[in-house]
UniProtKB/TrEMBL annotation, chain A:
Purpose: Catalyzes the transfer of a geranyl-geranyl moiety from geranyl-geranyl pyrophosphate to cysteines occuring in specific C-terminal amino acid sequences.
Alphabetical list of PROSITE patterns matching this protein: LRR, PFTA
Ranges annotated as spanning the membrane: none
A biological process term (GO) from this entry: prenylation
Gene3D superfamilies recorded: Protein prenylyltransferase, Ribonuclease Inhibitor
Catalytic function, reaction form: geranylgeranyl diphosphate + L-cysteinyl-[protein] = S-geranylgeranyl-L-cysteinyl-[protein] + diphosphate
Top-level division of the source organism's lineage: Eukaryota
Family membership: Belongs to the protein prenyltransferase subunit alpha family.
InterPro entries reported in the protein's UniProt record: Leu-rich_rpt (IPR001611), LRR_dom_sf (IPR032675), Prenyl_trans_a (IPR002088)
The protein's name in its UniProt record: Geranylgeranyl transferase type-2 subunit alpha
GO cellular component, one term: Rab-protein geranylgeranyltransferase complex
Organism placement in taxonomy: Eukaryota, Viridiplantae, Streptophyta, Embryophyta, Tracheophyta
Automatic annotation (TrEMBL), chain B:
The protein's required cofactors: Zn(2+)
Subunit structure, interactors included: Heterotrimer composed of the alpha subunit RGTA, the beta subunit RGTB and REP; within this trimer, RGTA and RGTB form the catalytic component, while REP mediates peptide substrate binding.
EC category name: transferase
Record protein name field: Geranylgeranyl transferase type-2 subunit beta
Record-stated family: Belongs to the protein prenyltransferase subunit beta family.
Keywords: Metal-binding, Prenyltransferase, Repeat, Transferase, Zinc
One GO CC term, this protein: Rab-protein geranylgeranyltransferase complex
Length: 690, 348
């Protein structure tokens, strides 16, 4: 019951109410008896009409009327006049019911059912709708019915667009009309109807219209989402494009021979070997069809098996933004003195398609060099696994040229140059410039600030190769929004984090300033891994993964992260620190399942296990979603019932070091569970595992 | 070796049975009654303002009046003389689900006689396998899910002829992947969710074409990130719950633009802390569930203020006679009592 006061305004005559209820019950039971006995006499049918007028939601009564109509129609098939009178009667009953309850699903459906028979005139319908919509312009039943009638009458999208314009002119605050407009415009642009072929012109017109709404009442949400849609239409690339890859174009990679890696994989600079060399493709949108026929890999040595490309996606889908494969190069094929040129050709033959069905039509080629490094390992590094400690004094500022000579060159070429993007963006840039200038006049309110922040971000997305501009201003805007609208603090905070990461990853200099050598007593400088430290940034969401594909050691500690969605793109990742964040469950760490090279993980000092209803439970296949096969859970000897989330995320990982202390879930039995689950584990919470 | 389902707390188990989306605007209205305009802005005098603050703080510190709500639910079941109870008789199966699930969430499931309930549920089943909203009414997918959920709640799914019920549900799938509510062919994404949820509880999802079912739901996605009843239908928080939940169960959440939908959903929170179901509408306790659980499923629940929402829900309680209403000081009903308690449970 909606909108009825708890304490009635007038004293209630309880006897009268009881009598009314009694009468209704009597009618209902008489009706049900008619229905059961299939009585369709005039009186019986009239009784159902009376009942529906009082209670339009009584679905069985609508069903009964349909049965009666069917029977009556069968008796007078040849007489159009009787047919019409039978159906007209139904339309009348519906109309009366709708006057009682405008939101009755059953009544609206009954009307559709009658009209679909094709005998009734449609002329009355739009008039009737106008009458109802004048009472409530937002009723979504009426709008659905309007779309149904328009389709049945074959009214053109142009005419319906005109109708939305009229509704908007009457009241700018009609979200339903804006919505219908977005549906119609999408159709018209998709089929390139006359007058709708130039995206530039259509969007310019629409921006003008929605601006009127936003500037009339900035707190009215009706235009907010429409404007965001227009912005998305302006900058979104319809074409799937390759954004970045690993290895990057032109890089020169030293590959440790497999012989020298066995047994000490966790501590070497390189966490890939010739037996397991990852290739990663990062697209601008989700695509499917990445396989050995659409992506060809040629090299100076013999690859005798077809590569299997896997989508890095947490669902079972065959589409993803990021795809990876692993090369297994037989050592016998490589000579240490030679460099091997490898070429990855993407999309030269057809088959890669976006989820919206647009084919990948801008083939890319990535070339890089591989050579085998057969340097003997230094003493102290081989036999024992040292424990990684994420302490500040274990990190030394990066000195160019010492550990990874190729890094500087590599960071210069993180983004792939796509010609389509740089040439086609003139009108988009113009629109965004204009909008930005106009919305700067609205900077004293929430939607003004948010829109300017989005416009400036969109401007950068049009020119992915250039250094982002206005980052400082955008960050400032989001900070102001956090104060202005504290209920949605975290939304602005997450956006703030994304822009901050764009800024950090935007240039070689900025990235290098966050690169450190990891050093401890057991390692010489030569063997020291390079760590990207994005700690203490107060970030709550991760992004800019396309710029981070090269990272092997990552420190994200002391942030405000709740999820690591997207981190699965970092296929080289071998050591990861997530301590002192805000993770509430293992399911929030699901991306870890795709990081097959991960050896060292620190998730200590979080909130895992502190909430009884896990915040991301429904994000992945779980026993609760009834889709996990029992074979997955064939581990009775473990306490998997209690720790099934941890089990699900960690089970196939080859971790050698894990830190989980400082979470609500930790206990002695949990540690026992972890030791059983992870037989490769050497260190658990700083203690050596036997 | 079979996997034994994890042991869950009462509320976890209950919520895993996803509440039923019914007629979102379960309206009993008089002719011509339309949405209320938002109340005019008033500036209270300083003293009054201070008093309001104190009062709202006190309420915010309060808790669910659990015992009162339990009493209210039991009383609703007994009241036969009210006009509402007569009007709602045809959807008693939904009422049973709301009431019993609320009792379960409040850890009071055992105050009712489960055998009596199960006996009544089985009397509502038809030859077709589907369940009606009450004895003597027609079968419909809406009530079929409620029946399954109540039986699951009492751990009594074994009384069902699973094959028969699942065949009934699967038989309602159309060529385009959508689902009809019953033999009369009304199509709605609510029914897609209901079919998928019901079949997944019965572990019979293989009886339908899941891919087509998912594709139909995707065809109802809008440019604001939300979902409507049918293709082109306006986004609505209840409808979004149905579509997102159906995609979650079928492992197809990658079709949801989480950031876009998340913004639309989090903007449902209005100044009072309550949530509305569409832009420019009044807040309503039932959306505590539809919006909150949708945000939870797409991992964006931190984008709203849970504290303010809880405060709003608690303010909608009738602390005297039990029950929760759509907005503070409105008349309580079992539908909003359920969604208030469920929302509070997830938010807490």
């Amino acid at each position: 019951m909606h909108g009825r006061p708890r304490k009635p305004l007038k004293p209630v005559d309880e006897a009268a109410v009881a009598a009314k209820a009694e009468k209704l019950r009597a009618l209902q039971s008489e009706f049900l008896s008619n229905h059961q006995n299939k009585i369709y006499s005039k009186e019986a049918v009239e009784l159902s009409a009376k009942l529906l007028e009082i209670n339009p939601e009584l679905y069985t009564a609508w069903n009964y009327r349909k049965l009666a109509v069917q029977q009556n129609l069968a008796q007078c098939e040849s007489d159009p006049e009787s047919v019409n009178s039978i159906l007209d009667e139904e339309l009348k009953v519906v109309e009366n019911a709708l006057r009682q309850n405008f939101k009755s699903y059953g009544a609206w459906h009954h009307r559709k059912w009658v009209l679909e028979k094709g005998h009734s005139s449609m002329d009355k319908e739009l008039g009737l709708l106008d009458k109802f919509q004048a009472m409530d312009a937002r009723n979504f039943h009426a709008w659905n019915y309007r779309r149904f009638v328009a389709a049945l009458m074959k009214r053109s999208d142009e005419d319906e667009l005109e109708h939305t314009q009229n509704m908007i002119d009457k009241n700018l605050s009609n979200y339903s009309a804006w919505h219908n407009r977005s549906v119609l415009l999408s159709n018209l642009m998709k089929k390139a109807a006359p007058g709708f072929t130039s995206k530039d012109e259509v969007l310019t017109r629409e921006y003008e219209l929605v601006r009127e709404a936003l500037f009339t009442d900035e707190d009215d949400q009706s235009g907010w989402f429409y404007h965001l849609w227009l912005l998305d239409q302006t900058v979104r690339s319809e074409f799937p494009l390759l954004v970045s890859s690993w290895p990057v174009e032109g890089s020169d990679i030293s590959l440790p021979a497999a012989d020298y890696l066995d047994g000490c994989a966790s501590m070497n600079v390189f966490h890939y070997s010739s037996r397991n060399f990852p290739l990663v493709l990062y697209f601008n949108q989700s695509v499917r069809g990445v396989n050995s026929s659409t992506v060809s890999v040629s090299c100076g040595f013999n690859l005798n098996i077809d590569l299997i490309w896997k989508p890095l996606s947490s669902t079972d889908s065959q589409s993803a933004k990021v795809w990876a494969t692993h090369l297994a190069i037989p050592d016998a094929e490589l000579h240490s003195s030679e460099a091997y040129q490898v070429e990855v050709k993407v999309g030269f033959s057809q088959g890669i398609v976006s989820t919206t069905g647009v084919a990948y039509s801008h083939p890319s080629q990535i070339s890089f060099q591989l050579h085998l490094q057969k340097t003997p390992l230094e003493s102290g590094q081989d036999s024992r696994f040292g424990r990684i400690q994420w302490k500040d004094d274990c990190f030394a500022v990066y000195e160019p040229g010492s550990a990874e000579p190729d890094l500087v060159n590599l960071l210069d070429n993180l983004t792939i140059k796509n010609e389509v993007e740089s040439t086609a963006s003139t009108w988009q840039a113009r629109i965004i410039d204009d909008e930005t200038n106009i919305f700067r006049d609205l900077l004293d309110c929430k939607i003004g600030k948010l829109t300017v922040a989005r416009l400036l971000t969109a401007y950068n997305s049009l020119r992915p190769l250039d250094k982002p501009v206005h980052c400082k201003e955008v960050l400032e805007l989001y900070s102001e929004l956090m104060k202005l609208d504290p209920s949605h603090y975290q939304y602005y905070k997450d956006n703030h984090s994304l822009v901050l990461l764009q800024q950090v990853t935007s240039s070689k200099e900025s990235l290098l300033s966050r690169c450190f050598h990891y050093r401890d007593s057991t390692l010489s400088t030569n063997g020291s891994p390079l760590c990207l430290r994005l700690n203490n940034l107060a970030i709550s969401q991760l992004g800019s993964f396309e710029k981070l594909l090269w990272v092997q050691m990552l420190d994200l500690s002391n942030n405000e992260l709740q999820s690591i969605e997207g981190l699965e793109a970092l296929q080289l990742l071998s050591q990861l620190c997530l301590s002192n964040n805000k993770f509430r469950s293992f399911t929030a760490l699901e991306s870890l399942r795709y990081l097959k090279s991960l050896k060292v993980l620190d998730i200590s000092q979080n909130e895992i296990g502190s909430h009884s209803i896990d915040t991301t439970r429904y994000l992945f296949r779980s026993p609760l979603s009834h889709s996990v096969g029992s074979c997955d859970w064939n581990i009775n000897y473990l306490s998997s019932e209690t720790y099934w989330e941890a089990f699900f995320v960690l089970k196939d990982m080859g971790l050698t070091q894990l830190d989980v202390a400082g979470n609500a879930i930790t206990s002695k039995s949990f540690n026992v569970f972890l030791e059983k689950l992870l037989p490769t584990l050497k260190w658990l919470d700083g203690v050596e595992v036997n | 070796m079979e996997f034994n389902p994890p042991l869950l707390t009462s509320s976890q188990r209950t919520l895993s049975l996803f509440p039923l989306p019914l007629h979102f605007p379960l309206e009993i209205r008089t002719a011509g009654e339309v949405e209320f305009p938002p109340p005019p802005k008033r500036h209270a005098p300083p003293l009054q303002q201070a008093l309001n603050t104190i009062e709202s703080t006190l309420v915010a510190m309060g808790e669910l009046a659990a015992d009162k709500h339990v009493k209210y639910i039991l009383a609703v079941e007994k009241r036969k003389d009210s006009f509402e109870s007569a009007v709602l008789e045809h959807l008693r199966m939904n009422g049973a689900y709301w009431g019993l699930t609320t009792l379960d969430l409040l850890d009071k499931r055992d105050v009712v006689d489960s055998n009596e309930i199960i006996e009544w549920i089985l009397k509502c089943q038809h030859e077709s396998g589907g369940f009606a909203g009450n004895i003597g009414h027609d079968p419909h997918i809406l009530y079929t899910l409620s029946a399954i959920q109540v039986l699951a709640l009492f751990d009594k799914l074994n009384v069902l002829d699973v094959d028969k019920v699942s065949t009934y549900i699967a038989g309602l799938q159309n060529e385009d992947g959508s689902f009809s509510g019953d033999i009369w062919g009304e199509v709605d994404t609510r029914f897609s969710y209901i079919a998928i949820c019901g079949l997944s509880i019965l572990k019979c999802l293989d009886k339908i074409n899941v891919e087509r079912a998912v594709n139909y739901i995707i065809s109802c996605r809008n440019v604001d990130g939300g979902f409507g009843c049918t293709p082109g239908g306006e986004s609505h928080a209840g409808q979004i719950f149905c579509c997102v939940a159906a995609l979650a169960i079928t492992g197809a959440l990658h079709y949801v633009d989480k950031d876009l939908l998340g913004w639309w959903l989090c903007e449902r929170q209005v100044k009072s802390g309550g949530l509305n179901g569409r832009p420019e509408k009044l807040p309503d306790v039932c959306y505590s569930w539809w919006v909150l659980s949708s945000l939870t499923m797409i991992d964006r629940v931190h984008w709203i203020s849970k504290e303010k929402l809880i405060k709003f829900i608690l303010n909608c309680q009738d602390t005297e006679n039990g029950g929760i209403s759509d907005r503070p000081d409105d008349a309580v009903d079992i539908f909003h009592t359920y969604f208030g308690v469920a929302g509070k449970t997830v938010a807490a």
